[in-house]
Structure formats: C-alpha cells, structure tokens
Design brief:
The chain is an alpha/beta fold and 157 residues long. The chain has helices at residues 13-27, 77-84, 109-122, 138-154; strands at 2-7, 31-36, 63-71, 74-75, 93-100, 127-134. Strands 1, 2, 3, 4, 5 and 6 form a six-stranded mixed sheet that branches. A hairpin with a 2-residue loop joins strand 3 (63-71) and strand 4 (74-75). The longest helix is centred in the last third of the chain and has 17 residues, at 138-154. The chain starts with a strand and ends with a helix. The relative contact order is 0.18. The structure holds flavin mononucleotide. Flavin mononucleotide binds at residues 9-15, 69-73, 99-102, 107-108, 135. Residues 3-157 form the Flavodoxin-like domain. It comes from Proteiniclasticum ruminis. It holds the Pfam family FMN_red. InterPro entries: Flavodoxin/NO_synth (IPR008254), Flavoprotein-like_sf (IPR029039), FMN_Rdtase-like_dom (IPR005025).
Length: 157
Amino acid sequence: MRIALVIHSKTGNTLSVAEKAKESLLKRGHEVTIFPLSPLNPDASKVSEVKLSSMPEVKGFDALILGAPVWGFQLSPVMQYFINNTVMPPSMAVYVFVTQYFPFAFLGGNNAIRGYEKLLSVKKQKAKKAYVIGWSNQKKREKSIGFFLTDLPSFLP
Ligand SMILES: Cc1cc2nc3c(=O)[nH]c(=O)nc-3n(C[C@H](O)[C@H](O)[C@H](O)COP(=O)(O)O)c2cc1C
C-alpha cells in the first residue's frame, strides 16, 4: 500500500514519531513517503497568515497519515492550512495524530483532534483513527508512541 505521512513539526517531536511510523510501516511491506510541511513564516499563529514553500501532492496514495503539534489548545495552523487547501479523494484512508507538551489529552490534544475532524468533514473525509501523544512524561510518551505504532497498522485498509 502507498502511504503518505504529511507532517508539521517545528521542533522535531512530531517528525520523530513520523519517522518511527515510517520505519515500522516499511517493515510491514508498505511504500511510505514523509512530506514535511515547511512554512515560510514558521511562527504564524493564524491559519490566514500561513504560507507554505510547497504543497505535498497526496493524490494517488492509498492512505494518508497527518501529524502536527498542538498549539494553544488547537491543531497547528500549518496543518489546518494544509487540510483546507488539499483535495482528498474519498477512497483515501485518513489517520491523524498530534503531539503536545502536556501528558493529558484534555490539555489541548482532544480539541486539536476535533479540529482535524471538523476540517476533514468539509472534505467529506473522516479519520479512521486519531492519536494524542503527550511529550513531557517520558514513560507515558513512549507508551503512547508504542501504541500508535502497533495500533495504526491494524486499521489500514
Ligand atoms: C505556539 C505553541 C503553542 C503550544 N500550545 C500547546 C498546548 O496548548 N498544549 C500542549 O500540551 N502543548 C503545547 N505546545 C507544545 C507542543 O505542542 C509540543 O511541544 C509538540 O510536541 C511540539 O511538536 P514539534 O516538535 O513537532 O513542533 C505548544 C507549542 C507552541 C510552539
């Protein structure tokens, strides 16, 4: 299966999870590409201010994994911009995750996942699975990443 990971990561946490996912999916025989989103103004705090150096083309992939940080209890504006400006065929299976500082999903992650759901519904899409990974507590972080890596492949079409 052809899998695209579209990732926004300012300080590297989300990208490090994506790289682990890539490694694990490659081992399962999938074809995997990571597309890091590179904003021209990395500190833009509103989706209306975001400018990307290029937009990944996800048409032709069977599955799309979106990963981004939580910013101010919301999905990062860069990921919001990407979803708003991307055509997603209904046949594509979509999965989402966020990383956040706090160890509890109610401190931003859950709301960011609702952000994904809202934007994807405009595209007539729905995430098959959603994951929140808290960063500050190492033990919890490793457990969440481990769960993400083993759970997601079982939901691939
Ligand atoms: C502007 C900004 C706002 C943030 N807001 C939150 C927040 O509301 N809740 C939270 O748990 N972490 C928050 N964080 C922390 C990041 O979500 C967390 O460090 C994340 O793992 C960073 O991912 P990255 O390294 O891929 O950029 C914020 C970070 C930034 C830069």
